[in-house]
Specification:
The structure is a homodimer of 321-residue chains.
Chain A lengths: L2 H11 L12 H7 L3 E5 L9 H10 L7 E5 L3 H13 L2 E7 L4 H9 L3 E5 L6 H12 L1 E3 L6 H21 L5 E5 L4 H13 L4 E7 L4 H8 L25 H8 L4 E3 L1 H15 L9 H8 L9 E5 L6 H8 L4
Parallel strand pairs in A: 1-9, 2-3, 2-5, 3-4, 6-7, 6-9, 7-8
Helix pairs in contact in A: 1-3, 1-7, 3-4, 3-7, 7-8, 8-10, 11-12, 11-13
Amino acid sequence: MTIEMIEAAAGRLAGHLRPTPLLRSPFLDEIAGRPVFVKPECLQHTGSFKFRGAWSALSALPPGTAGVIAYSSGNHAQGVALAAKMLGLAAVIVMPSDAPALKIANTRAFGAEVVLYDRHAESREEIGDAIAAARGLVLVKPYDDPQVIAGQGTIGLEIAAEAAALGLTGAEVLVPCGGGGMTAGIATALAARAPELRVRPCEPEGFDDTARSLAAGTRLGNAPEARSICDAIVTPMPGVLTFPILKSLCGPGLAVSDAEALAAMRHAMLRLKITPEPGGAVALAAALFRGEALGDGPVIAVVSGGNADPETLLAALSTAG
Amino acid sequence: MTIEMIEAAAGRLAGHLRPTPLLRSPFLDEIAGRPVFVKPECLQHTGSFKFRGAWSALSALPPGTAGVIAYSSGNHAQGVALAAKMLGLAAVIVMPSDAPALKIANTRAFGAEVVLYDRHAESREEIGDAIAAARGLVLVKPYDDPQVIAGQGTIGLEIAAEAAALGLTGAEVLVPCGGGGMTAGIATALAARAPELRVRPCEPEGFDDTARSLAAGTRLGNAPEARSICDAIVTPMPGVLTFPILKSLCGPGLAVSDAEALAAMRHAMLRLKITPEPGGAVALAAALFRGEALGDGPVIAVVSGGNADPETLLAALSTAG
């Protein structure tokens, strides 16, 4: 991954992104005991940063590409669906037939053809490969794809510019981390454009594979019995492409509990007037509740997505945290 | 009110405002049956547009002014408090002693001195006048002040520029309306910079004094027994300064029910990932549910504030609308 690839992705994204300027509240600063700035990517098209990587990848495809295919029941699906629609490409999303009806409906609403499969009896890869071969579609992976990482890295370019405008030096940049595409992209951009800002991956407890992998120096997975409400980032282990970047550029990882993620959602709703989803709130949770693991300066926390269902928002509002 | 005053206010606000670029969701477009763009002023400093007018008024005070005083238990109080703090002015906010503890705490957190009074036994005007005289403070009214109207009008300058960038012509601009300061400011700005956009004031049922006043051609009040959850805009009648502007520039007013305001809050939380307060959601509610009273084109709805308490957000999420 190079800064030039990220700059090129930013060029292709120009005019197609929703601006997500930093937010701040004195009430959050008080909880954290330090200035807390929030990058609200929940306000991005489709409600998450995933639109950036999807557009970056799809807009880099050779002319004449028939369309794309992706496996996802979540934010990547919606990002690929909308980017494909805006670029005039066909999009097929392979989703388990027991995925939430709302997510299936959302993916269709963003213009994609949804192919359902029985995840107990069928292989999504076999189904996807057959469709891709028959229709000449290109697979778009959620994080282990250089153009996807470059697209997510455009968040880092914006953070570098916004931090410079605010005179923020020495800040830690807290990033929700699943497979590591966004974290790797932001870390690459900041290493080139704002090397005094240090990226820290943030994960749910039980899915802290990145934190443990960074500590061990090698890719480790999570226990199979682990569970978390942070569905957007409960990935099995760091990516093949992303982990070497994280290892080279990031500070130690942080992990937060589901209760802390819900409490961070509540504070974001009441103080910043945004609605994160649980996985999107883990970096803000770390900023608010894990200060002992942070340096002395300000933090910039990315709120990566907001595609929570009403029940989850109700649960967050009902927390006492 | 002149466009030059609004442009001057925009100049004084430059570098001190949080950007609030327009949001949109295909799901809201589907409900409304037309493109719906949302200006999310709930993301503004202090959680409402009121910061604009407060800064505009305070930054126009003559050098040497000791400080300001305001009566408000709501968004104007917080806007004045923060603007005064940022400008290095003393601020006294006169609030009823039975105001919600959270609002008192918030106003103090933004740096103001809060003076409580017993609203059953004391006159806030007498208390305020005595403090103002003793300490040389200037009263800042919530809407019937030219510099406040000019500050709110900067929203109109932004909408004009954003609509032009989107190629939106013929849109109706729906604005939550209490005393009419924001509506008058936006209407003045658009009349000068985007005269093809028509402003429509939006109010809660029972507090549709502006709609009825526009229909009658003269200022009318509301029935004393009227009640609404839209606390930010339950003002008694249009302002002395604001009404002539509304009468000259605005289309007919629209009124929505509390249930529609709550449903609009729910859709905003789930689809736009923002949390409006009830009064801040009435224009979006009109866009979504009162299409029969609108023209054929797209609408731009201002979400004017987001200072709802958790119980109100819970009520909104629990609606079926």
